[in-house]
């Protein structure tokens, strides 16, 4: 005998159960988002320190007298070698 109607899919309880489950999933995803949204340093600490040192020496060179510049330039070259990544 052929069927003319099918039983209802899910019924009224299905959306309620889905909302309960999805609420917990939403809370979990929000906690993961907070974890990933925390800012972190783009570079390694040693590189950041060396780059800051180079920046400070460049500022000193810009404000230095012509007599002080050769010594600061030597410091800058040494700081740049520290800044280069090790291979």
Describe the structure.
By secondary structure, the protein is mainly alpha-helical. It has a domain at 45-83. The protein contains 3 helices and no strands. The longest helix has 25 residues, at 13-37. It is rod-shaped. 1% of the residues are buried. The model has no long low-confidence stretch (mean pLDDT 82).
Q: What keyword list fits this structure?
A:
87 residues, mainly alpha
What value does the average pLDDT take? 82
Unreliably modeled segments: none
Helix content: 55-70%
What is the gyration radius calculated from CA atoms?
32 Å
Helical segment tally? 3
Give the topology.
Elements: H1 13-37, H2 45-63, H3 69-83
Helix pairs in contact: 2-3
Summarize the entry for a quick read:
68% of the residues lie in helices and 0% in strands. The protein is mostly helical.
